[in-house]
Amino acid sequence: MKIAVIALTRGGKELADRIVAGLEGCESCEVIGGALAVIKRLWPLYDGLICIMAAGIVVRAIAPLCRDKKTDPCVLVLDEKGQFVVSLLSGHLGGGNDLARKVAAITGGVAVITTASDVTGHTALDLWAAENNLRVQNPQVMAGVAAKLVNEGEVSFFSTQECARLPVDFKVVDAPALADIILSHAAFDPLEHIGALALCPCNLYLGLGCNRGAKAADFELAVTELCAQYHLDRRAIAGIASIDLKADEAGLLQFASDNNLPIRFYGKDELNRVEGISPSAAVMAATGARGVAEPAAMLAASDNTIPGQPGQLIVRKIKWKDVTAAVAEKKLTVMVQTPCSKG
Q: What is the distance between the alpha carbons of residues 332 and 150, in angstroms, rounded to a whole number?
């Protein structure tokens, strides 16, 4: 994290020097033009602001700047003796709570954490989702589900994916209608599951083959129709794969760039080692590989914990005029969130 320390008094500046010396990525910023002006200037430049001054000054300064907890920097407020280190803003996703604990360890003070999940020791849903690369499809219900977790001690959880080591305060149920949290790469209908938090794992890989000269629009049409046919949320797509002979296909590269998706290419020998695909004599004649879309998708979805184990093919190859596509799923390992400290 890139952290700025702002202090107003002589004692505050001495404390700032101690924090900068003990915290990596931290620098002291001179106050020119008043505290409100410097906080406004630093707001878009840093991941976190450590303000050694009265809380009222900081609140007035940041009030017009706050936009979204996913983008706002975290903000800490300290007295000039460092007795209390208050995590004021972006405690979870912004890392403010962890930063407060680190700063308190330097100053010898107390980290003041007010987020309910940290105080009670329950899973912080937003942080847990971010740590596990789960896309939140309906963030507007996050607060309600988090409140239920704190108030009742657990939430019901349904997943179409095989999960490992779920948090202890998640109660697994066998139907989405019973769930407070639904984990699936299927397209989500908010009217069907009102109030449920929908999470989409980013663990699907597209295998793509094509005729020479296929355009980006051809790939876009194919992927759109594939996702609609199999009710897949496009946010679940983690990457694209193909044969190395297609590494110069402008349309394929443009499609990957347009969708901000990484793309990998495999040689024919790698593709031919993958079992369980639908071989094609025409593809073999053209490329030397028994298939492209299916084995490429499976290789891209390989389980990193099991060398040589390809991903699970969930959509066999579908052909369009100039594009062939298949989908493989990478094994999802959902981890327990790092336990919150109450100290």
A: 26
